Automatic annotation (TrEMBL):
GO molecular function: copper ion binding; oxidoreductase activity
Keywords: Copper, Glycoprotein, Metal-binding, Oxidoreductase, Repeat
Name of the protein in its database record: Laccase-2
Family stated for the protein in its record: Belongs to the multicopper oxidase family.
Keyword Repeat annotated: yes
Species annotation: Cryomyces minteri
Length: 508
């Protein structure tokens, strides 16, 4: 980890061939933050835009790089990405400030010696479950375990070399399952020039707050005395716990220095789960938001279901979907949206309308919210209850734009987008456990015209036919011989050889 880099230029056609060589697992690729303009079938979300790709099957994703910057691709099958099915992605384009050298990707993640799939059962268990404590974090797949200098320390640090006086472009992405990081290099400042896929007016800071799914391009100035410095990605325990959360470190060596273990000291800061200040995130290409044509209001809570499992609820509904009957597949088959997502399958039929999404949570836990198919405008974000009279979404003049923003603990988030991309688009919390426990909804945008945007409907059908055959289901109905549906919880089909799972509370 991470997987191989996908690299392209702004405007390129990107073609990715995915072969599922797993023996007993589905998979998919989602290209995080890519708008998939009029190519919803390439968004790679099992149960939403496709069935999972069955073992032994192949699928080709083709899309236009209409944005540029830094991102990542990952499986969207259950929580498979956090087992390592992900990699970095660079779309080259203009930069908001000059630099001397491109230093490459800095991929941040949390990590555990026990698999996250095995931890999921404990996380959702209403008797003994709840938030998980992970073991460690990684920088570009690397870190140590155990104290420095200990004879039994394992692993190694990521290292990077600087030439004194030069400036370096670093591309950061947070791929964690639950963790927020404060990223910095001891003694150094840097200039932030983009957030997600949006170039911004440069600003200077010494610590960068980066939440799950977010990306930043920064320029680091190698202007400190020649020596060795810690590169740190400090986990913010107020969001989620990591045992070795303050020892997620790499090393920056200056050319001509001792090339040894650093003795530099970290910055002092207040531990917090926050985004970068939104007043600092000013898009270079100025776009204004407009008044809402439609408002979607969701209040987030967590509760136990009838099976004593934790589930996240949006306005009283926990998101459900089925791998064998994704929304796009249903639209192509009969022009209708499958009904198992209930109120969380939200139709926005008209193009050219402004949609506001207001999410509130009384729970003192933050959530990184990601919307597929769009960059959104961040109109409001704060603690407490949202009230249009006292905390209006009034930031309509060139507000920040991105595709992941933080819903603050016990707070609210107000997002806006214009309907200009027919398709089926997932919006979800990017904490892996939460998505699989139902913290998601889907927006069905311009339903009457979705089918006309799908150039190769056979691909969608063929992937589902292969999956249903693998899972022991009837490819025309998606129903197994027995026990293929339950009361809205995890469902196992006994018709297949291994009783394979076909339905999650979220399944995405």
């Amino acid at each position: 980890m991470p997987g191989p880099l996908i690299e392209a230029n702004w405007g390129d056609t990107v073609v990715v061939h995915l072969i599922n060589a797993l023996q007993d697992n589905g998979t998919s690729f989602h290209f995080h933050g890519v708008r998939q303009n009029y190519t919803s079938q390439m968004d790679g979300v099992p149960s939403i835009t496709q069935c999972p790709l069955a073992p032994g099957q192949k699928m080709t994703y083709t899309w236009i790089a209409s944005q540029y910057g830094t991102s990542w691709y990952h499986s969207h099958y259950a929580i498979q990405s956090s087992e390592g099915v992900f990699g970095p992605m660079i779309i080259h384009g203009p930069h908001a400030a000059p630099f001397d050298k491109e230093a490459g990707m800095i991929v941040l993640q949390d990590w555990n010696h026990q698999t996250v799939s095995s931890m999921y059962d404990a996380a959702q268990d209403g008797k003994v479950g709840g938030p998980r404590v992970l073991d460690n974090g990684l920088i570009n797949g690397m870190n140590t375990w155990g104290p420095d200098g200990a004879a039994n320390q394992t692993g190694k640090r990521f290292t990077m070399n600087f030439d004194h006086g030069k400036s370096y472009l670093l591309r950061l992405v947070n791929t964690a399952i639950q963790s927020t990081f404060k990223f910095y290099i001891d003694g150094h400042k840097f200039t932030v020039i983009s957030t997600d896929f949006v170039p911004i007016k440069p600003y200077v800071t010494n610590i960068l707050n980066i939440n799950i799914g977010q990306r930043y391009n920064i320029i680091v100035h190698a202007d400190q005395p020649i020596g060795d410095y810690w590169m740190r990605a400090d986990n913010q325990r107020a969001c989620a716990a990591i045992t070795q959360g303050l020892d997620i470190k790499g090393i920056v060596h200056y050319t001509g220095g001792p090339m040894s273990t650093p003795t530099s000291s970290g910055y002092n800061y207040t531990t917090a789960c926050v985004d970068e200040p939104y007043a600092s995130l000013v898009p270079i290409v100025a776009l204004n938001a407009m008044a809402a044509n439609k408002e979607i209001d969701e209040t987030v809570v967590v509760a136990l279901n009838a099976q004593n499992l934790y589930r996240w609820y949006l306005d009283g509904t926990t998101f459900q979907s089925q791998f064998d009957d994704p929304t796009l597949y249903g639209i192509l088959k009969n022009g209708s949206v499958p009904n198992y997502s209930g109120d969380l399958a939200i139709e926005v039929p008209e193009l050219g309308e402004w949609v506001y999404i207001v999410i509130e949570s009384p729970i003192p836990l933050p959530h990184p919210i990601h919307l597929h198919g769009h960059d959104f405008f961040v109109l409001g974000q704060g603690r407490g209850t949202y009230n249009a009279a006292t905390s209006p979404a009034s930031n309509l003049v060139n507000p920040p734009r991105r595709d992941v923003a933080l819903l603050p603990a016990a707070g609210y988030l107000v997002l806006a987008f214009v309907t200009d991309n027919p398709g089926v688009w997932l919006m979800h919390c990017h904490i892996g456990w939460h998505t699989s426990m139902g913290f998601a909804l889907q927006i069905i945008e311009n339903l009457p015209n979705i089918r006309s945007t799908i150039g190769d409907t056979c691909m969608v059908t063929n992937v589902c036919d292969a999956w249903n055959n693998y899972a022991g289901l009837d490819s025309t109905t998606g129903i197994g011989n027995e026990n293929s549906t339950t009361n809205g919880t995890t469902s196992n089909s006994n018709a297949g050889t291994n009783g394979r799972q076909i339905m999650f509370d979220s399944g995405v």
